[in-house]
Each structure stands twice: as C-alpha cells, then as structure tokens.
C-alpha cells in the first residue's frame, strides 16, 4: 500500500486547524522502511520550538492511531525557517508589520525595494520610507523577510 503526501495532508490538517496552527508544507520522502515525513508549521506571531514539540507529539499520536504509513518512518515537525521566501498572500499576511525585501516587475524592468508589510489582501501594501506602496500580486517575483541583528 502506497500513501501520498496529499492523503497525509488531509489526515493532519484538521488537527492542526484545531490547534490554531497553519500547515505551511508537507513532504514525504524516501523509500519504504526509510520514509521521512516532514511537516512545516507556523502560527500567528511565529512558532516556537516548544510549540513544534507539542504539535509533533499530537501528530505522532494521530498517525499512530490512523497508521496511514506502512512500516517505519521518521516524523519531523518544524518551522518553515526565517529565511523561507514569502510566496503566497497568506505568507505575507502572517508577516504583517515585518520588514521585507521584494523583487517585482515594473513593466519590462525588475525592481526591488525594502519596506514594512502593512497589508496583504487584494494587493501587497508596503510602507517604504513613510510612503505607502501597493504592488499587484502578479508583479511580485520574490520576497524575503529582512532580519535585523
């Protein structure tokens, strides 16, 4: 019996939603007996190691009860990482208030700017040096949170 990542996603998403945690990504890699199930989660304000550990225990219990993966496997639950690119509007919404560097299309030219995410709804609203700038989602090429040390 072969299980897909999509089947596991359908199994774990209700538990994650109940916990108020967003499933960012899910990977099922390897060969039977050596499978690795990686689940990347986040929540409002960012996810902590302790919270990942708590969710990992709950997911492990669920997977043990439902037994969707034949044989042995390793479960890894973690945050998506601070240097993960922002891709979907929900990624930007989760990071409202944070500084981000965005590459975008301006006609035929690629430009970049750094600003604070103010809103992420119908478009992306940034504050750049006191000025509000709106970018259409279709113009955004890539974006990353800017870390300050």
| Overall mean pLDDT | 91
Sheet having the most strands: 5 strands, antiparallel
Beta-strand percentage range = 35-45%
Order of helices and strands: HEEHEHEEEEE
Gross geometry: elongated
CATH topology assignment of the largest domain? GMP Synthetase, Chain A, domain 3
CATH H-level homologous superfamily name of the largest domain: RimP-like superfamily, N-terminal
Low-pLDDT runs of 5+ residues are: none
Structure class: alpha+beta
Radius of gyration over all CA atoms, rounded: 18 Å
Q: How many distinct domains? A: 2
Describe this structure as you would to a colleague.
The protein has three helices and eight strands; from the N terminus they run H-E-E-H-E-H-E-E-E-E-E. The model has no long low-confidence stretch (mean pLDDT 91). Helices cover 26% and strands 39% of the residues. Strand 5 and strand 6 form a beta hairpin. Strands 7-6-5-4-8 form a five-stranded antiparallel beta sheet.
Task: Briefly summarize what is shown.
26% of the residues lie in helices and 39% in strands.
Keywords for this structure?
2 domains; GMP Synthetase, Chain A, domain 3; 149 residues; SH3 type barrels; five-stranded antiparallel beta sheet; 39% strand
Itemize the secondary structure elements and their pairings:
Elements lengths: L4 H14 L3 E8 L5 E8 L6 H18 L6 E6 L10 H6 L4 E8 L2 E12 L3 E5 L2 E5 L4 E6 L4
């Amino acid at each position: 019996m072969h299980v897909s990542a999509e089947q596991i996603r359908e199994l774990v998403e209700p538990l994650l939603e109940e916990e108020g945690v967003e499933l960012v990504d899910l990977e099922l890699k390897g060969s039977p007996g050596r499978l690795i199930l990686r689940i990347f989660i986040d929540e409002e304000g960012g996810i902590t190691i302790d919270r990942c550990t708590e969710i990992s225990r709950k997911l492990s219990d669920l997977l043990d009860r439902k037994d969707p993966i034949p044989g042995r496997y390793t479960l890894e639950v973690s945050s998506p990482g601070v240097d993960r690119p922002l891709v979907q509007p929900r990624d930007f919404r989760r990071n409202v208030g944070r500084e981000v560097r965005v590459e975008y299309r301006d006609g035929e030219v690629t430009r970049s700017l750094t600003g604070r995410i103010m809103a992420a709804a119908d478009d992306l609203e940034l504050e750049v040096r006191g000025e509000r700038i709106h970018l259409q989602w279709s113009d955004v090429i890539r974006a990353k949170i800017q870390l300050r040390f």
